[in-house]
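Two proteins follow. First one:
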Amino acid sequence: MIYTVECSFADPDSEAEWNDFYSLDKLPALISVSGFHTSQRFKALSGGCPVYLALHSIDGLDILTGEEYRRKGGGNFARWQQHITDWHRNLYGGVERAPAIGEGEFLALSATGPEPLIRLGLTPSAMQAVAMEKFPEYRWLARVERGTAADIGQLPDDVHVYAPMTAQLTSGGDAAVGKAR
């Protein structure tokens, strides 16, 4: 299953420090939770969506309600909470593991169907919301080679493109792709 966390951050003065916390402390803490398999952060290149996206491959909803998650990875945002806006969490079925997006790639997400991604020459994977907000109910994701990316300004409103901020962390402790900072 894919656990998504999306948000924007409203304080430019502390945003770099918050990003360091999330990328360097929060992601490693999450990947250490039993049942987390991959974690990676992204920043939106297109408008109309929260600025930040984290994709986590997990075993299921029970991981997010367990004591280990609460102790190691859940929350820990008290210092930043007042600046976190447009925050959304969803759990999607249909894709077992999030793709590792490298420095030479983007991640594209569509909430309107696979057709916009297919028209771009991509191979989308379908996900259906099964827990948490359950909105959007369906999403399609695809890996995009940077050299083949269409003009981001010409994409349909419900197709969002993200650049990796981190390498994908895996539960084995290794990054699945090159460093994306």
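Second one, unrelated to the first:
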Amino acid sequence: MTLSRKQQAKVEEYSRALLDASRAEGRAYSDLTQWRHAVKFSPEVMDTLTSMQEEDDVDLIDEVYAEFKRLVDSDDSIVSVTVTTAVPLDDELRQKVCERAEDMFHASIYLVERVEPKILGGIILEAQGQRFDASVKTQLATVRRTLSNAFMGGDE
């Protein structure tokens, strides 16, 4: 893979940050081994670890592992649904989202709420590997593509 200068600079920046931190803790080779295996992490694992880091909850990793294992082993029938909105849900909308998700997945719902102002409005639902995107940002992108194709004969 050929990297641009900007990508090469980022790679070096990330690598030096890892090296500085791991040398300070006396674990450079251990961290190097861990890094090699990090590419095997699923996006969900990476997102969870990032969230835990941002919330200063890294000390809960062992407990999260234990609870995750317990849930997997118990064949839990509750479906985790992540809902992303531009503003926090109120109680009425939260109830409607849960009811709609219960109908869609024929199961009890564990709702994970995320606020992401960049979607501008609307809602994104994610569960069981499915994504239902009714965000304003996506709708505007669709309109843009449609207009671009209709009036200019292509994208952009």
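SUMMARY FIELD: DSSP finds six helices and four strands in the chain. The CA atoms of residues 146 and 155 lie 9 Å apart.
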